[in-house]
Amino acid sequence: MAKLTRKQKEARAKIEKDRLYSIEEASALIKEITNTKFDASVDLAVRLGVDPRKANQMVRGVVTLPHGTGKDVKVLALVTPDKEEDAKNAGADFVGLDEYLEKIKGGWTDVDVIITMPSVMGKLGPLGRILGPRGLMPNPKTGTVTMDVAKAVSDVKAGKIDFKVDKAGIVHAAIGKASFSVDKLAGNAKELLDTLNKMKPAAAKGVYMRSIYMSSTMSPSVQLDPKAV
Q1: Which secondary-structure segment (H or E) carries 90?
Q2: Region 11-19: what's the mean pLDDT?
Q3: Residues of 183-210 as b/e, b for ≥16 C-beta within 10 angstroms?
Q4: pTM assigned to the model
Q5: Per residue in 94-121, is it b (16+ CB within 10 Å) or e — as a string?
Q6: Are the C-beta atoms of 74 and 217 separated by less than 8 Å?
Q7: 126: DSSP letter
Q8: CA dihedral 91, 183, 61, 75 (to 10 degrees)
Q9: For residue range 158-206, what is the model confidence (pLDDT) as tens digits?
Q10: Ranges assigned E (strand) in 165-208
Q11: Angstrom distance (rounded) from CA 213 to CA 4
């Protein structure tokens, strides 16, 4: 195992072992122990008491973080010519159709989110092997396949993120940046956790929120108290 640096040791020393922190305490502590030269991303990892292999226990959805993600999200709108102006006005970084489909075929995926219309999905099918592994395939469940392209673009730009439970039953989501105030980080964390709580599958048995950890890029993680959520 790699040796810890002095800063990493100091950061770990500030976290009380076996203590469960409130959302506000964890947000303040993460800000205190993040020592990166760049504005680190702050993430939540929530272990749920679900079996994601069963369709009736799949947890997937979207949430609009009240204080945004702090990230400049690059959006590609794959739309027919009549929707191009709407997508541009809503803030899409790239707008078009066939020329971008060709670029993606050539391996270009320099975007964070792709938004499209139902009539265009047929053309995207063959690109699934490129877009799927990168999490870029548009999906009606996450609002990225829609007739109201302008609203979808502005929602994503304003801090709408999608999340999905992984094979281990964990939801990972970025909830802001280390430069955010404690109130903003805590507000975003609460919004995500409230949304997850409301999505508890009826088929899930036992404790739903098993554990919640907050961390930033390169920082150790801080455990939150699931009961306080």
Answers
A1: helix 81-90
A2: 86
A3: ebbbbbbebbbebbeebebeebeeebbe
A4: 0.79
A5: bbbbeebbeebeeeeeebbbbbbbeebe
A6: no
A7: G
A8: 20
A9: 888 889 899 999 999 999 999 999 999 999 999 999 999 999 999 998 9
A10: 170-177
A11: 20
